[in-house]
Amino acid sequence: MIYYDIYEDLRDKILEGTYPYQSFIPSETKLVSIYECSHNTLRRAISVLMLHGFVQPIRGKGVLVIYRQERRANFVLGDIETFKEAAARNGLDATTRVHVFQRIVASAQVAEATGFAAGDELWHLERVRVLEGKALIRDKSYFLASALPGLTASIAEDSVYAYAEDVLGMKIVTSKRVVTLDYATSEDRAVMDLLDFDMLAVVTNHTFNEQGVMFETTQSRHRPDYFTFNNTAVRGY
Amino acid sequence: MIYYDIYEDLRDKILEGTYPYQSFIPSETKLVSIYECSHNTLRRAISVLMLHGFVQPIRGKGVLVIYRQERRANFVLGDIETFKEAAARNGLDATTRVHVFQRIVASAQVAEATGFAAGDELWHLERVRVLEGKALIRDKSYFLASALPGLTASIAEDSVYAYAEDVLGMKIVTSKRVVTLDYATSEDRAVMDLLDFDMLAVVTNHTFNEQGVMFETTQSRHRPDYFTFNNTAVRGY
DNA sequence: GCCGATTTGTCCGTATGTATC
DNA sequence: CGATACATACGGACAAATCGG
């Protein structure tokens, strides 16, 4: 995929400062001759850069870099990535404790709450994410059992996504997320290191694989002081 | 813009149920002949649908609808839109109280906190958003004065964005947002109807116009029970 | 103010590859 | 294997905005 390679190359040059904030990257014409690709392919790479908030094209002038290094945050969410990847990217030591691991059949209530159909066979997992020795995130997950044969508690302790992608060959494509706030429950307090926080950031996500099957929904409950959610919106895209 | 018209038409058909959840929309070939457009233009419309979480194309099969009507939320954020638009879309009666309206010169501290340059002339606004008679959101905004000549308190009471777009002809292009949580301050409590909530959802945004100039940064502090933030991530885009 | 060169934006047509059925 | 459907890439044409002379 040529467009993606070009995207990564330009992105890295922006990240390392070759193309600094508020500067223009080389023109389409120049980049086309540099990468020896068609202008449409280059434009696609630019559009991915734009959607990720790195650049903003200005007609008649050029493509402006609007990315700049953010202040250090504790735990940044945003793109599709696993908990382990996010922890590694944020330079944190991470482990996972599996509290619940069971196979269930979706009741009408579970179906209503999760978006699965009543009668679906599901894996029900409850896990706590531990960063630097602190239990900061509590995940309540439901996975479609038919999409994840052979799931075990020890896999869940490592990374379900890695198992799905590397072992089963599944690909995660779309992830819809909703961020809300909720009171901490006594259950939250029992398994998390909540200090005196009484509210949590709640990220509810629905994940679709390459078959368009919603195979996972997870409610992640985050301790407020370690929660950051990034997003870029571009008009018309 | 043909691609955008096609996007809107398909999106509306999905919203009204013509193309229901988990069904395939007509094939590329059929849509091309329906809309009498080129292959590429249609694909662009599909890609916008995908980025907004409405569909997911599956190679060899078709384009699957993965959108379904969500439960009613109190106040949903996500795309680029004004407070008034969001209120209208959520069917709520909305007013704005302007508490602070002044012109300042950015100090080093303000520059550090906002991302503007020290010495920039800024409008500093503090506003409270009132929905259905309840003061639920507190906005602390800084606008680049050179980008918004003639701003007044009464405009701020209505909609700064409408003034920028309709009167000044500015276009809002990119909006970067970060969601965090913060303790409610005594100032928050003084101007908002906070009940007994002691934490707030904080959305910090940086907005760029069509010139690539960051002309606004706003910190919006939301009462937890009225806060919802939507997001869709697609792998590779 | 005008013109021409540059740069991005949109659209079209075609070719080829890959996955599904 | 062939037909269908999406995915990627190329090249060309014209429009729209900017900028300098």
Give the distance, in angstroms, between the N- and C-terminal Cα atoms of chain A: 21 Å
Average pLDDT over all residues of chain A: 92
Largest sheet of chain A: 6 strands, antiparallel
CATH fold call of the largest domain in chain A:
Chorismate lyase
Please count the beta strands of chain A (DSSP E, at least 2 residues each).
Answer: 11
Low-confidence stretches of chain A: none
**H and E order of chain A:** HEHHEEEHEHEEHHEHEEE
Total domain count of chain A:
2
Fraction in helix of chain A: 25-40%
Describe the structure.
2 copies of one chain form a homodimer. The first copy, chain A, is of the alpha+beta class. Chain A folds into 2 domains: 2-65, Winged helix-like DNA-binding domain superfamily/Winged helix DNA-binding domain (Arc Repressor Mutant, subunit A); 73-230, Chorismate lyase (3-Layer(aba) Sandwich), CATH 3.40.1410.10. Chain A is built from 8 helices and 11 strands. Chain A has helices at 2-15, 28-35, 39-51, 83-89, 108-114, 153-158, 160-167, 186-191, and strands spanning 24-25, 55-58, 62-65, 76-77, 94-105, 121-131, 134-144, 172-183, 199-209, 214-222, 228-234. A 6-stranded antiparallel β-sheet of chain A has the order 5-6-7-10-9-8. Chain A has a 3-stranded antiparallel β-sheet with strand order 1-3-2. Chain A has a two-stranded parallel ribbon with strand order 4-11. Chains A and B meet through α3, β8, β9 and β11 of A and α3, β8, β9 and β11 of B. Chain A binds a DNA duplex (21 and 21 nucleotides) through α3.
